[in-house]
Amino acid sequence: MKLKDSYISHKNKNDHMMIDSSGKFAGIIHGNATAAFIIECLRTETTREELIAKILDMYDATEKEAAESVDIVVKALSGIGAIDG
Q: Is 8 exposed, middle or buried (0-12, 13-18, 19+ CB in 10 A)?
């Protein structure tokens, strides 16, 4: 899976915002640092398992917590059509 190229991100301290430059999604997506990390990882083709492993390397989290974070973010992004694959 991969984030569509039309999604542009901006980080500001602890806040992460993203918009769709194609105009297909009219809104702003806000996320925390973990969501921002997952979104940036999705800039290249990756799998759920790779995302979980990257979170475990970056944060002090259990595998269950990492998987839940990935699933929440991927579900939200998929729901607005932001992910290919």
A: exposed
Residues 6 or more apart whose Cβ sits within 8 Å of residue 19: 7, 8, 25, 27, 28, 29
For residue 30, give the 3-state DSSP assignment: strand
What integer pLDDT is reported at residue 20 of this predicted model? Answer: 92
Those residues whose C-beta lies under 8 Å from the C-beta of residue 21, and which sit 6 or more positions away, are: 6, 7, 8
Stretches in the chain below the pLDDT threshold 50: none
Q: Burial level of 4, CB count in 10 A (0-12/13-18/19+)?
A: middle
How does DSSP assign 6-23, residue by residue? TEEEEEETTEEEEEETTS
**Per-domain residue ranges for the chain?**
2-84
Query: CB–CB of 20/38 below 8 Å?
Result: no
